[in-house]
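Lab notebook: predicted structure, single chain.

Context: the supervisor wants predicted structures on file for every construct in the current expression panel, including those that have not yet been purified. This is the next one on the list. No modifications to the sequence; it matches the entry in the shared construct table.
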Amino acid sequence: MSKPFKSITQQIELLETRGVQTDDNTAAILRREGYYPIVNGYKAPFIDETKTAEEGDDRYVAGTKFSDIHGLFTFDRNLRELTFHYLIRVEALVKTACAYCFSEKHGAHDAYLQLGSYATETEYAAFGLNDYGKNLVKLISTLEYKSKDKRSEFISHYQTKYGEVPLWVLVNDLTFGNIQHFFNLMKPAEQRAVCKHIALATGRGGSSTLGYFHPTEAKASIDYLVKFRNNCAHDDRLYCARVGPHHECGYAMMLVRIERFLPETEYKDMLDGIIQLLNVSAATSPVMRHLIGNMGFDMQTKEDRVVVRLPNS
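Prediction complete. Output recorded below exactly as produced.
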């Protein structure tokens, strides 16, 4: 059965019949943002499950305001924008580290297109991964396609002027997901070099608090960060996102994983911005405090204020 078009007035009437309190700003917000992204995207915490089951369509918890739903929508968008700002910096670092460490070990300009430049099937399996042949062929096919893509101005320039595209140039046309697979298929010694490169580039190597880290840790972290990056880029819900093979990584755990990939000052700036956003949002309603708690953050009452903290901070 198709969904009939509803005017802004009809959208407001529908919300009110389902138990949502609207106000003078509702029409303007719906006209600017749209009904579906706000209501269908962020209604879940406000739904009365019992009444919804009884009535056969959405019914909201008594006292729910449209401004509450829109507030969650706005909070999540602000969280995405803030998070994406730092994830694209992580993406750039991982690309740079992989391209540098690979190129340092492989002299041929087209080494990234050669099967022998990558880990063996045994090494790949020892890294906890499957489908070696399929993934290796797919990666090389992707790299070859992108290295010949004349729609990219800088790729076309290097092909025309030099007759080749070195990896440190090509990497700028790869996605974070592409470079994730590239890292997974690198030889073990080169993966370790990438980890060291990242630690040194962020000032977190040697005797620092975090020190150097192992490729298996990098693999898991990059997997999580790629998924959160794509979540932000595609305007998917972030506050309730859980990624990983068993959906084990929520937002708070992502913040733990990202630390190794940012200089200490940038990481602190990120946390300060997020904590500020969470504290402002936690002060708005009990629903927001509940949702922030479900994200993995600790909350304490201090001087009649709700204060949000990172786990174990």
